[in-house]
Structures are given as C-alpha cells and as structure tokens.
Amino acid sequence: MKCRHCASELTLPFLDLGSAPPSNAYLTQATLNAPETWYPLRLLTCQSCWLVQTEDHAGREALFTDDYAYFSSFSSSWLAHAKTYVQDMLARFHLGPQSHVVEVAANDGYLLQYVQAAGVPCLGVEPTASTAAAARQKGITIEERFFGVAYAHELVAQGRQADLTAANNVLAHVPDINDFVAGFAVLLKPQGVATFEFPHLLRMVQQCQFDTAYHEHYSYLSLTAVQRIFAANGLTVFDVQQLSTHGGSLRVFAQRTDLGAQPLAPAVAAVLQEELAAGIKTPAFYDQFGLQSTRIVRELLQFLVSAHNQGHRVAAYGAAAKGNTMLNFAGVRPHLLPYVVDKNPAKQNKFMPGSRIPIVDESHLRAHRPSHVLILPWNLKDEVMTQLAYIREWGGQFVTAVPHLEISP
Hints:
CATH class of the largest domain: Alpha Beta
Shape: globular
CATH architecture of the largest domain: 3-Layer(aba) Sandwich
Order of helices and strands: EEEHHEHEHEHEHEHEHEEHHEHEEHEHEE
Strand content: 15-25%
Distance between the termini: 46 Å
C-alpha cells in the first residue's frame, strides 16, 4: 500500500487488530442472522510524511451510509464544546450577519445551531441522510454531499465562499485527504479561516488509545503530518490549540497560502517541538503501540471473567465506535457482557457489530442493578458518571479500560 498523501510505500507497522466489521454497522433483528462483512484492521506509518493510516479495504460509501447512527447531539459535553467554539470564533474573527460559515461533516446540526442562533448565515455539508435529516429539523440548511475540490468549486460558483469553515472530527475520516484539504483552499474567501479538530496522534500513543482505531478513521494525525499535508494543498497552519476532547485533540487554524494574512502563532512551533521531542519522526515512536493494546484487552478480559465467576452483573454504557473496536479485539460476547446501554434511540434495539451484544435503553440499569458499568466511550467518563450516579444507590461502580483498567466508586 502507498501513502494516501505522498504515495510513498508503507512498510512501518503501527497497530494490527486482526479484523473487524465497520464500527458503525449496527445490526438489526432482521440482519442478526445474516453474515457480517469483516475487514482487516491494520495501521501503517509513512516514514516520508509520518502520516499513520489504516489499510484500504472499505470505501467511504460503505461506511457512511444513509442510516449512519452517530449523532453528535447526544453528548451534553460535546454540545457545550461546540457552543463555546462558535462564541470564540465569531468574536475572534469578527463574524456577523454579513459573513458565511460552512461546516463540513455537520452531522445533526450540533454546532451550526449556535451559528444560526447568532444570526450568522451558514451551510452544513453532511453525506449521511440520517444525521442530515436531524439537522434540517433544527432549521439548518444541509447539503448531502461528500466534500472535495469539485464540490468546493460548485459552492464558489454559487457565491457561497466561506469566511469560516469548521471541520470537526472529519479530517481522519476521508480516504482522499489531499482532495479534501485542497477543497478548503478553494472554498475560503481570500481572508477566510479554516479550523479542523481531530484526535492527536501523540496523545493516542501516550495514553494507549488503541480503540480509536477503526475503518472510518483512515488517518491518525499529528501536527507534523498535517502541516505538511496542508502546505501541499494550498493551506498554511497559523495557530493550534490543544483540547481535552476525545482523549486529547488538536484544533488547527489554517488560511489560504496565497492570500491569508493571519500572523503565525508561537503555539505551532511549540506543538511541533513537543512531537519532535517525543520521537514522532522516528520508527521507535510507533513500534511498541501494539503491545499496549494487548495489555489493555487482557486486563479487561480478566476483569470480566472474574466478575462472571463471582456472580456479578456487568453492563456497558455507550455503543460507541471505540467500544466496538475494544470488544471485537478482546473477543467479548454477550455471555460476559449481556447488554450495552445507549441514550441514542437510533442505536437502541439493535446489536453491536461483531460482538452482537444487544443495545438497550437506560431503564435496564435500574431494572437489573448491575454491580459494574463499563464505560466504553472513556472520553466521556465524567459526563457518564454524572448521568448514571444513581447506580451508587445499590453499590454499583464504574469501570474504564483505557489507558489501564480502573474501577471508580
């Protein structure tokens, strides 16, 4: 396989999780008896541009389907994050009724609802019909398209250039990262600004976040790689912020290389230096990550088997993509984990892909009073523990598996 950015041959392994079905391919009662499609799940590192990437086995149309079940608005902490972002960006870049904001991967309108409420014209680009419909119910203009250079030219021809573009947790999800990034250089007005948020590869390695690997994530991003990819496609990084979201993310600010006028912030050099000091341009940074993933699933399995043998009831919370990676790599099935609770109705009464564990609503916790609740989306640990604090009424405890097994009262 060749690098999806620079076309160099990929020879440095990063992570091998065997095989798994697509992480958001939830099963229904009707499809439960049908075969599932599993794809190899292996990650490699380019030693030319240092982009970590998943081997190509599934196209974007097979992963981002009309019934895509990930809806951003079910996380209160993520909504708060989006609201703060909008307030900060409108103030920093002096945006108002005369401006135009475009969000790529607008999902269910979780972010643009705040742009619209501020009286700023906006457009959402979202390829999945299920989430696009939810955004329209909020009164947001949505176009169901995959983003790239050709579509960006269409928008420009329609007079819909952007003063600000937002692209949260989508840069890792695109198979043709060059076409995707180059589209923003086309769409931006001469002094426009593009922001991108994505999980930081450095934190992924430091905190053993192997379960963030799944087929929808075509790329795993450092600022070192992103700066190079942007420069090759008409964008210049001028600022970066380190965020706590998704276990540690970067928010990168970029402008058109030809006409952008924003000054270069010291934070860019600081993050690049931190990555360099960690060895991000050396093979040694990448070659031990797989060992950490096996340690984590071993700890989880030991806990689940011990709890089962002692007659304890264990439930899980959050039918998240990272949870599917974890459960399938560990080989967990319903005899060890009988159900997963999720507040998203689009996932309830379905089954986790691969493990085929039932997804149920929250009432099951009070009905069954489990001794432990395994929080699969560990990045939302604080939010979930607050939401489910009532399990302590019967002595219930919370469990997370990443970066190591932790039991919290």
